[in-house]
Amino acid sequence: MSTTKIKTGQLWGKNKDDLKKQLVDLKTELAQLRTQKVAGGANSKLTKIHDLRKSIARVLTVINATQRSQLRIFYKNKKYLPLDLRPKKTRAMRRRLTKHEATLVSEKQKKRQMHFPQRKYAVKAEA
Fold this sequence. Notes:
Blueprint: H1 8-11, H2 16-38, H3 44-74, H4 91-95, H5 99-103, H6 107-115
Helix pairs in contact: 2-3
C-alpha cells in the first residue's frame, strides 16, 4: 500500500499497462480505507482518502492526456478530426465562413466586376 502522494512527473514516463495497474491498486486501497472508515477507524484515514482520490485523478489525467496525444498524431493528416480534438473557440466562430469560402466570387459577380469596374475619379487637392 502506498501512503504518499503520487507525483505527476513520475507518471508521464510510465506506459499504459503500468498506469492501469497503478490505478487498480489505488482504487483497491481506497475501497479498503473507506471500509475502515465505516468500521470506525481513526480520523487520519480521511486525509489518506483525500490523497488517494487526488492520486487516482492524477493517474487518470495522465492516461487521458497520453491517449489524446496519440489520437492527435493518428488524425494529423486526415481530412476530418473528431469533435473533441477540434479547437473549441465559440459557437459563432465555428460557424463562420472559412477564409477560402469568404474569398470565393461567383461567375455572375466576376462578369459584373469585369464589365462594370469601379470608376476612378481624379480629385483635386485643395491647398
